[in-house]
Write a structure and sequence with these properties.
194 residues; globular; single chain; Rossmann fold; disordered N terminus; alpha/beta; 45% helix
Length: 194
């Protein structure tokens, strides 16, 4: 009788494992990974922004829009953590203010992005980044992320970890298209993505 139970349970456990793996693959949970903690990302990204020689266009207060999907838990958690990091990590030279931007299929990006200077992209699912990037370039909004693969897709600046330390990723073509002009000192420290 124990043999029968074992024989029945094994296929069920394999089936359950296959179903979970299939679910993860179809929901995009395997991609869009962030290796650096959100607070660490913001500590580095806020410094990176000060290397933009065109920073004067933003003034002394920089509005950071945090693009997220309310139906995606990871996206919402990252949004909350980043807004908290922005509030805590103020410097005397520049003031950052964070605004959550809920992204759905009906979001009017042109209307929403008109109020931000910088756009941070949290992990998103089933979203065409090129549409968002086209608007950020048209409006000259610098784009940031903690998802390294988004930098490959055209986000200007991202953070990854290498050997446990944050590594700055810069998509130079995207940065220029968004009106960002980084000094050579920063470019020497960053990994340039084309």
């Amino acid at each position: 009788m124990n043999y029968t139970r074992v024989g029945v349970r094994r296929p069920r456990s394999r089936l359950l494992t296959a179903m979970i793996a299939g679910f993860l693959l179809t929901t995009g949970a395997t991609g869009q990974e962030m290796s650096a903690l959100v607070a660490m990302q913001w500590a580095v990204l806020s410094k990176v922004l000060t290397f933009d020689r065109n920073l004067a266009r933003m003034g002394k207060e920089v509005a950071v829009g945090v693009l997220y999907q309310p139906q995606v838990r990871r996206s919402t958690v990252v949004k909350d953590e980043l807004l908290a990091a922005i509030d805590l990590g103020q410097s005397s030279d520049l003031r950052f203010t964070g605004t959550a931007i809920s992204f759905t299929s009906k979001t009017d990006l042109v209307a929403i992005l008109g109020d931000v200077d910088v756009l941070y992209k949290s992990p998103l699912r089933s979203v065409d980044l090129s549409m968002i990037l086209a608007q950020s370039r048209r409006l000259r909004i610098a784009t940031l992320t903690g998802v390294p693969e988004y930098v490959q897709s055209g986000v200007a600046v991202g953070i990854d970890l290498q050997g446990g330390k944050p590594r700055i990723l810069i998509n130079l073509n995207s940065a220029m298209a968004e009106g960002v002009d980084f000094g050579s000192g920063l470019l020497k420290l960053a990994k340039i993505v084309q």
